[in-house]
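Batch manifest line 97
LIGAND: flavin mononucleotide
JOB: complex structure
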Amino acid sequence: MIKPFYEGKEGLQRDEAMRSIGIAAQTIMLAAKDMGYDSCPMIGFDPAAVANFIHLPADHVIGMLLVVGKATKPANAKGGFLPVEAVVIENHFKRPC
Ligand SMILES: Cc1cc2nc3c(=O)[nH]c(=O)nc-3n(C[C@H](O)[C@H](O)[C@H](O)COP(=O)(O)O)c2cc1C
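JOB STATUS: finished
ARTIFACT:
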């Protein structure tokens, strides 16, 4: 049932992969923390070089790198957070003026 939904729609396939990668990564990070480990997601890498290094098949995509291990020092202080109303939209955006 799901195959025709994605077939020929590469943008949708990639969107779905990125959605799933985000959910999976966060789950791994939370599980790691629960097991006493720390983690760090990264996108600052050369995707083509990493793909070549790990022999990535042509029909796969790398969403991020995620390292899990023991932190060598505490995390740096956060620079701050966006206000909740800037990132959580309930029902609809404000009507443009
Ligand atoms: C999807 C994602 C990708 C990230 N990529 C990088 C990266 O390439 N390089 C980097 O220094 N931090 C990256 N960060 C931020 C780090 O994961 C980390 O939060 C940051 O280095 C601060 O670490 P600290 O909280 O231990 O001080 C990324 C965060 C996310 C959520």
